Amino acid sequence: MTTDVPEEHLLGQFIPLHYHFNMLRDQQRMAPFREAIDLTVPDNGVVLELGGGTGVLSWFAAQKARDVYCVERNPALARAAQSFLANNSNGDRVSVILADAMHYLPPEPVDVVICEMLHVGMVREKQLQVLHSFKERYRQRFGPLMPRFIPDTSVLAIQPIQQDFCFSGYTARVPLFEPPGPHMKDSWLADPFFYSTIDYSAEIPLAFQVATEMTIQSDGLFNAVSLLTNNFLAFVLTEKRAVTWLMNQLVLPIQKPFAVRAGETVSIAFEYQAGGSIEALQESLVAHPETRSAAVSDHIYLRRAA
User: Residue 96 belongs to what domain range?
Assistant: First the structure.
C-alpha cells in the first residue's frame, strides 16, 4: 500500500504540538520516565535527548544534569519547548537545538542519551534508525565508550486474539489500539510470543522477520493479533527491579479469520522495517491453522454432518 502523504506529515513521524498534551498528561508514561531519568542521570552530568518534543524529558534530566542538549527538528515544537523550559526551574540548563536527530552530534561526550521516538512494535517512529545512526557517528567522534540509554531495553511480542470489531452495530475490521490490562485477557487465545529483545547498548535491529507456530490455549475465533511492547527504561539492580513502560497494544485484524480450539497449533508470519508503516506490517501478516489431527478433523466433520 502506498500513500501520497509526505513521510514527515504522517502522525508518528511528525507529531504536532496539539497532540503532545496526551503524552504530558499520561502518567503511565511520565512517571516511569521521570523515575528512570532520576536514577540514571549522574549529578552534574551531560545528557542528550534525541527528539525532544515539548522538552519535558530534558527538563526531568536538568534537575540533576549540568547541561542537557534537547534536539528537535520541528520548528514549532522547538519554539514551544524553549518557551516552556524558560518557565520551569532549571530549564536554563537545557539547550534546545533545532536539528534532525538522525544527523546531530553533541559538542562533547554525554553520560546519558534519552530517545523516546517509540511506537508499539517499533513501527512508524524512527527510534531504531536514529539510535543506530547516533551510535555509529558518536563512536567515530568520541571513541568506543557509549553513554547509557533510556530506554535501556525494549521487548516485542505478538499474541493471537479474538477481537470485537463491532462499533455501534457497524462491523469494521480496522487496526486499533487497546490499553494493556486485565480487560484484554478475555480476548487472549494463547500466551504472547516474544520475537525481539532490543538492547540499545548492543547492535540495533532495523528489520524484523518472524515465522512461528503457537499452541492455542482457549477456544475462539482467531481474527486478530496483538503487538505488545514493553520498555525497560532503567534497571535498579540493588532492588532487583526494573522501571518499565508497557505501551498500548496494537491490534491488527488478520485477512482470513478462523475458529480455533485449545491444543491446536497456528502459524503466524510477518516482516517489516523498523519505522515502517502499520499498513506494510499488516499486508505482510499471514496466519493460518496447522494441519489438524485426525481426531480433531473427524470431530469437525461429524459435527458439520450432524
Answer: 7-116
For 247, left (φ over 0), alpha (ψ -120 to 50), or beta?
Answer: beta
d(CA 211, CA 253): 17
Beta-carbon contacts of 9 under 8 Å, excluding residues fewer than 6 positions away, are: none
Distance of alpha carbon 284 from alpha carbon 276, whole angstroms = 12
Q: Copy the grid coordinates of residue 292.
A: 489438524
Q: Residue 245: inside a domain, yes or no?
A: yes
Please choose, from the candidates 41, 270, 245, the residue with its C-alpha nearest in 3D space to the C-alpha of residue 153. Answer: 245
Q: Is 198 helix (H, G, I), strand (E, B) or coil?
A: strand
Q: Which residue has the cell 559538542?
A: 107
CATH code of the domain in which 11 resides:
3.40.50.150
**What does the alpha-carbon distance between residue 37 and residue 65 come to, in Å, rounded to a whole number?**
10
> Are 83 and 114 in contact, with CB atoms under 8 Å apart?
no
CB contact at 8 A, 224 and 256: no
Amino acid at 139: R
pLDDT digits (tens, 9 = 90+) for 93-137: 999 999 999 999 999 999 999 999 999 999 999 999 999 999 999
Q: Are residues 109 and 174 in the same domain?
A: no
The low-confidence residues of the chain, meaning pLDDT below 70, are: 1-14, 291-306
pLDDT score recorded for residue 300: 36
How many domains does the chain contain in total?
Answer: 2
* Residue with the three cell numbers 490499553: 179
pLDDT tens for residues 130-172? 999 999 999 999 999 999 999 999 999 999 999 999 999 999 9
